[in-house]
Amino acid sequence: MSAEPQAEPATVDAALRYLADLDVKPVSYNPPPGQGAPHRDGNYHDFTVSVSNGRVAARDFSLDHEGFELVRNESAVGDFYDDDAVRAVYYPEIERVLKQVTGASRVVVFDHTRRADSGGNPDSKAERAPVRLVHNDYTELSGPRRVRELLGDAEAEELLKHRFAEINIWQPISGPVESSPLGLADASTIAPGDLVTVDLVYEGRTGEIYHGLYNPDHRWFYFPHMATDEAILIKGFDSARDGRARFNLHTAFDDPTTPAAAPARESMETRALVFFDD
Predict the structure, then answer these.
(1) Are 175 and 227 in contact (CB under 8 A)?
(2) pLDDT digit string (tens) for 99-130?
(3) pTM, whole model, 2 decimals?
(4) I need a labelling partner for 18 at 20 to 30 A (CA). Which of 42, 113, 151, 161 fits?
């Protein structure tokens, strides 16, 4: 059920970790287990920004303008730590939501990751901690590459003749979310140079991602106390070049109004490709 309405601050001041400059080429290294800890090259710093409460903002949010959108999805999944149930029940739910919101003719849900605050819940089975770094999951190159990797060159060649997008779906597993909420930058305030391509180096392969270069013009939003029947859609990539949002910057952050005894944030991130006939 949704959280009970409560008085909320219009904004909070929070420290967001950005790329500060490009004096050092940013690279992210991800060695195999047992061969060292993941680490980054680059000049990253915390910048204090004002994050506006999307629930009290006098505006609507959309994937095509801000690059994110709050939706309802009361899932029938009983246990989000059951991968079989997630794939059998949650994936079709997300497919229906994305078709309804975007008008896409086809949706391919291909991945999910559970996250929880490190140390917040020792019994949590979530695989990864929230990401406290301003980033976007796909780039100009890796968006189309993902289509080819998932669907094969022959099918991808036809699909890539038309508009497609990659969308992340962020939904709480337990709620309401009190700690480590998700901050989202208004895509209309992101300049092209603010998206910096960063190599993701793994054993045997190298991918890439966008990290955010600090720009005081960015406008940030969040949705406090998210409930388990709420989800945020995040535009990771859009092939359209007609003025709509193509990418988004987002990050987990520490809300200074969060009570010290607040429970750990547990959430599900699901990724999908959406295809259009135009």
Answers:
(1) yes
(2) 999 999 999 999 999 998 864 444 555 568 89
(3) 0.92
(4) 113
